[in-house]
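To the team - zinc ion complex, inputs and output below.
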Amino acid sequence: MLKVGPLDFSVELKTNIYDLDKRALYGTVLHSEQRILLDAEQPPQLMQSSFLHEVLHAIDDMVQAELTERQVSVLAPALLMVLRDNGLLKEDDPE
Ligand SMILES: [Zn+2]
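Output:
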């Protein structure tokens, strides 16, 4: 479980995650179901970035920041960079 403010999200590794236009996704957040889905087959570093991307969407939904997809997409790897460069990540794979 991942706590985002008052909400607990399940974090699930899956294969074959698609959006409504049938495009393959590295991850997605299902706000109404409080679930974060991550593609199980992506490389570990991509997984970390995808996870943070979906966390940012969950935070955005909570605080109503109305971030655009582009803003989330640039913030996630930037946040990962700062966490990694400062030794704030656990070394284990997130799997
Ligand atoms: Zn997104």
